[in-house]
Write a structure and sequence with these properties.
Structural class: alpha+beta
Largest sheet: 5 strands, antiparallel
Helix content: 25-40%
Radius of gyration: 24 Å
Number of domains: 1
Distance between the termini: 89 Å
Low-confidence stretches: none
Order of helices and strands: HEHEEEE
Shape: rod-shaped
Number of helices: 2
Mean pLDDT: 80
Strand content: 15-25%
Strand order of the largest sheet: 1-2-3-5-4
Length: 156
């Protein structure tokens, strides 16, 4: 009788399959944590933008873009659907050193933060959260590709 000191092929395959299943479960939970972290960073950056607008609000008015005040203008380093306005940028950069960068997870059609000086008569900031996460700072404006589009009114 020989003494086998090794593992059989079946035993090795079972161990590899178990390791593969555990790895996929861990990666799935990591993706969920990354999504939550990106959304938390967005909410923090929007709060900072609101504070910057309110700090720069020294003469009783918020900035009105040079062209079409009812349009949306980019107030982050990059945006997918709008350009920047020099009047808004100058106003904003009095209180912050640079525009925030929206952490893009690649799941949203609309990225960035937007300013509108006259949305239904009030100035707002618009942003999008991933994976239908409820808006934290204010109301949900709509849904875009399964992602909540949120607006927050800037209270001067």
């Amino acid at each position: 009788m020989k003494g086998n000191k090794g593992f059989t092929l079946i035993e090795l395959l079972v161990v590899i399959a178990i390791i593969g299943i555990l790895a996929s479960v861990i990666l799935a939970s990591l993706n969920s944590a990354r999504l939550k972290a990106r959304n938390a960073q967005r909410i923090t950056q929007v709060r900072q933008l609101i504070t910057a607008f309110n700090l720069s609000y020294d003469n009783g008015t918020l900035p009105v873009p040079l062209t079409n005040p009812g349009s949306f203008y980019c107030i982050s380093s990059t945006c997918s659907n709008a350009g920047a306005d020099p009047t808004v940028d100058a106003f904003l950069l009095r209180s912050i050193s640079q525009k925030p960068t929206d952490p893009d997870g690649g799941t949203r059609a609309m990225t960035g933060y937007y300013y509108n000086a006259n949305y239904l008569g009030k100035p707002i900031i618009e942003y999008t959260l991933e994976d239908n996460t409820p808006c934290q700072l204010t109301q949900t404006f709509g849904v875009n590709n399964g992602n909540n589009v949120c607006i927050v009114y800037i209270a001067p």
